[in-house]
Amino acid sequence: MAYREFLTELGGSGAGPFYGLLPLEECRLLFTMNRKPPDGSPRGFTHVSHPDALEGDLFLHIVEMGCSDLCLIAVTGPLAGRVVTGNADGFRPPNVSSARDFLSWYERWLNHMQAGKDNRALGLTSPSTVASAPWGRRVGEGRRRPRARAD
Questions:
Q1: Which of 34, 7, 32 is nearest to 102 (CA)?
Q2: pTM for the full predicted model
């Protein structure tokens, strides 16, 4: 599995989409995908220890996205090795990455970062995009003023 190779050869956490790759010791949350609701709304995910969790394919939480959003890697089943993003509560449908495995997905993210491309849906937001966001200081703005000393 490409994710295992990444962990053993390159490291277990650090830079990555959204809030970064979870350290290996925090990648212990396994989820199952919920059934498609009868009303046609998107599927969510349930932690395997929850009493309502279905038996089925397992997904490992690998990237912190915040709130109830999840970035997972399929551990078992037909999607094994593929990265899937979704929302635990089913606020949006799961998205299976077109990358064939974790290393291809991660390399795509690195290439997007290097090229300054922005793809919020996949967490492929470049530093230049973040730096020009309206809530933060823009690249090229004046230097910060030194703080006054409290004597």
A1: 7
A2: 0.73
